[in-house]
Amino acid sequence: MAVLARLGVIVVLWAVVAEGILDPVDFLALQAVRRSLDDMPGSSFFEAWDFTADPCGFPGVFCDGNKVSALALGDPRAGSPGLSGRLDQALGRLSALTELSLVPGRVEGELPESLSSCRNLRFLAVSKNLISGQIPDGLGGLSNLRTLDVSFNQISGTIPASIATLPSITNLILCHNHLTGGIPSFPDSSPLIRLDLKHNDLSGGVPNLPSTLQYLSLSANRLTGTVDSMLPRLTRLNYLDLSMNQLDGPIPASVFTLPLSVLQLQRNFFSGLLQPANDVTIQVVDLSYNRFWGPVSPLLAGVGQLYLNNNRFTGEVPARLVQELVGSGGLQVLYLQHNFLTGIEISPASSLPSSVSLCLMYNCMVPPVYAPCPLKAGSTNTRPADQCPEWRG
């Protein structure tokens, strides 16, 4: 009986030890990952990756039972040097992986196609490296994927249509790459909250996007067409940046009723009247370098920073806007240079607080209003008379 009791203790102890042993497939996969990556000078992330010990205790390795559940590669502290090398295809053998992140560094090569085998993957972020090639189409089969962030890399090719149909995707961040082609269509059922595609080479029109969106940035692409039928559907938007494209047509008044903190539409070909239905309280509104025309609406006086320069606005500057500036209200920046404005209802010449900025250069005002302007506004205070048909001297 004593022998049997001792055997029972041994079995129990073996079971306890075995429970902490990493699955051999995951163990070999981590070794392959380690061989494919190195610390950049000043980084010591891999110093503690000693495979004579339990890998579940390594920095950046998180386990669930005997499987790797999350992998955070590199020291996450701000300013720490990152890693170099490549992401190994062995990552696809981590069958229980739910999160994979890579700190900014100089990791190059392509995203492993094998990641499409990680069926539980929810979070994939490899921002600010030198990753190139295309987005693997197989990632569109990861039904649990919520966040895909490959921003600030050198990724090219088109956005796979399958990525847009991911049933769980909430954050799609592909900005600052070399992506081409069009923006794929998203189903109405998509739970997408953040879509960031700025600074690529995307072309074509802006498709209908999910009404769940709260953040939309498509800046610095080659997008064309109108957005007046698409924007009113996005009733939850709190950030909108469509700047530096070739978009045209009118802007619906309903855009100014969205719960936005930032509205950036500058450097496009938008045109038409700006006629908000109610007071606008968006903190930043930049509509500069477009083709808007007609009077400046006094309902824009509640904006914090208002950029309407380089358009075709006419008439007088509403007194309400100047009163907000002079009275140190919410309006802090009012840029109206390079329009066809003919006057200002009250003179701000000596009463502007030093904390606010007003520029009225190169309009049709007589006499011109002198106020500090940015250097790029030029040095000419008034338009030539032949450009001011409503000019009354």
UniProtKB/TrEMBL annotation:
This enzyme's EC code(s): 2.7.11.1
One of the record's GO molecular function terms: protein serine/threonine kinase activity
Residues spanning the signal sequence: 1-20
Protein's UniProt keywords contain Signal: yes
Leucine-rich repeat-containing N-terminal plant-type domain segment(s): 26-64
Entry keyword Acyltransferase: no
Broad enzyme group: transferase
Protein's UniProt name: non-specific serine/threonine protein kinase
Organism the protein comes from: Oryza meridionalis
Organism classification: Eukaryota, Viridiplantae, Streptophyta, Embryophyta, Tracheophyta
